[in-house]
Design brief:
Layout: E1 3-8, H1 16-29, E2 36-41, H2 47-50, E3 58-61, H3 78-83, E4 86-91, H4 94-99, H5 104-116, E5 120-125, H6 129-133, H7 137-148, E6 160-164, H8 178-195, H9 198-203, E7 205-209, H10 217-222, E8 228-231, H11 238-248
Parallel strand pairs: 1-2, 1-8, 2-3, 3-4, 4-5, 5-6, 6-7, 7-8
The protein binds phosphoenolpyruvate.
Phosphoenolpyruvate binds next to strand 8.
Enzyme class: isomerase
Catalytic activity: D-glyceraldehyde 3-phosphate = dihydroxyacetone phosphate
Binding site for substrate: 8-10, 171, 211, 232-233
Length: 249
Amino acid sequence: MRSLIIANWKCNPSTFKEAKILFNSLKKRLKKIRNVEVVICPPFVYLSSSKFQVLSFKLGAQDVFWEERGAFTGEISSKMLKDLGVEYIILGHSERRQILKETDEMINKKIKATLNNKLKSILCIGETEEERKEGKTFEILKNQIEKALSNLQTYKLRNLIIAYEPIWAIGSGKPCQVNEAMTAALFIKKLISHLYNQKIGRSIRILYGGSVNSLNASNYIREAKMDGLLIGGVSLNSKEFVKIIKQLN
Ligand code: PEP
């Protein structure tokens, strides 16, 4: 299966002009990429500007609201995103969990809404540095997965992707060891097999995210056998980001 590379632009860049430059640069550089599935997740406001130029990559969003329409000031629904050509949604990112106090219950509702709309959900999970030191990593991952997937029908998991993103590795320049990422991915697959069935456990795609760059990216794919990567900081540098993709193409 092709590697899945997700770019999380977070709250960047700060102007439409800069976003357009980045989109155009990616479009040009990614033209000949066939063996890697690339998804760009810009801020909501730049999604429509990229709608008609998306040939070399797919579009994703960084969040969504669980209701389809109505009196929910400031929110954006799965249906609206789908209408713009969005195919993937990042959910439960640690920055949203920590800064915006997003709960597992909210993440569960968002996952259900996106999967009901046949969008692909990328569920982010991961432990803090403190939890890791206390040996609680697997307990945290189990808890986050069980709560996020609570009451979710088995067939809907076809469109679910899980990103293992240790919080201490995000934006810190301290990436997770390749063997640690591999152990976490195996744990997640086993848990999904246990919660659902072996077929789903085996086929669910697991990504790694946290300080990925062009020097370490291919190790997670080739050695740790991750199905893809979620890339934050480096995805804003089109040259460096495409360098990673070319290594995997
Ligand atoms: C992220 O935001 O999910 C992420 C992995 O960021 P970075 O690549 O900058 O660590």
